[in-house]
Amino acid sequence: MDKIIDLRSDTVTKPSPEMRKAMYEAEVGDDVYKEDPTVNELEEYVADLLGKESALFVPSGMMGNQICLNVMTQPGDEVICERTAHIFQYESGTPAAISGIQLNLIEGENGVITREQIEPLIRPESAYYMPRTRAIEIENTHNVAGGTIHPISNIKSIQELADEYGLFMHLDGARLWNASVATGIPLGEYASYFDSLSVCISKGLGAPVGSVIASDVGFIKEAFRVRKAWGGGMRQVGIIAAGALYAVKHNIKRLAEDHENAKNLSEGLANLENVEINLDNVHTNIVMFKPLAKSVEQVIAECKEKGLLLGPGGVGIVRAVTHLDVDKNDIKKAKEILAEVIQ
Ligand SMILES: Cc1ncc(COP(=O)(O)O)c(C=O)c1O
Question: pTM of the entire structure?
Answer without folding.
Answer: 0.97
